[in-house]
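JOB MANIFEST
job_type = single_chain_structure
chain_count = 1
residues = 293
[input]
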Amino acid sequence: MTDSRENRGTPVSTVLGRRLGGELLRMREACGMRQPQAAEALTASVPKVAKMERGLVPMRDPDIRALCHLYGVADAKAVDRLLSLAKADRGRRKAKGWWNQYPALRSMVEYVALEDIATTVRTWQVAIVPGLLQTADYARALAVGNGAWHDPDEIEPFVESRLARQARLAGDNPLTLWAVLHEGALRQLVGGREVMRAQLERLLEVARQPNVKLQVVPFLAGAHPGMTSAFTVVSFAEPGAIDVVHMDTTSTTLWLESEADAAHHGGIFDRITRLGLAERSSTRLIDSIRKEM
């Protein structure tokens, strides 16, 4: 019997959908099962299972629970994490996630949706302070300097959305953030001296949080593998879950979702951190630059 619901999903592959589908595919292959067996457990068709594993359709909670049972996944936390991922994906497709009330987020919408369910974010930034650590004035100055906003009225909602993201660094289950910044990002006068001084004070403040690790790669570090581009590695709680790598360019947003890409960028991040100053030395350098402002 074919489930008549299988053709109702949006035929669009989202980052969240691909992530969830990839996890289900990994679980199926790990227990040696094939798609027809999964389809039988769902009373659905093999094409539906294929669409699910490719992230082409939103997934129902009963289907996820049924597949977890079939694949022998008994860890309640792992199942709950997949259900949360499916809920976030459905919200993304239906524009009901909190982030979708901010059209000014534009291409960042899918990244913020992932960030909302992540456990750890490792980010390397060459030229700017990462969004999770920006002050309102700094974010506003970046938006103005970007010059891409056709309607100036969109800038304030963009700033509000950036500040809303920062709620993930607080609360009962805060995001773990490891941010590595090049010294140049600290010295670039975004918005002028007063704005930068306040931004550096914000970095010193947030560096005291137990879930935030902040490092600076000084100019004296010389050549290193992170010189060509900034990137962010997003990690999740499920055992064996594959990290997602996010990169922004001047014209597009790039997602790297394979295990090889995750391992490659994880290795680059590790090499960059070894060239960075220790946390205490990093905060001393930030404070020194702040005083120069």
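[summary]
The radius of gyration is 21 Å.
The CA atoms of residues 229 and 249 lie 9 Å apart.
exit_status = 0
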